[in-house]
Amino acid sequence: MSGRTALLPNPKDPTELHARTTRLAVEARRDPAMRNGAIARIAEQTGVHKEALQTWVKRA
Question: Which domain holds residue 26?
Answer without folding.
Answer: 14-59
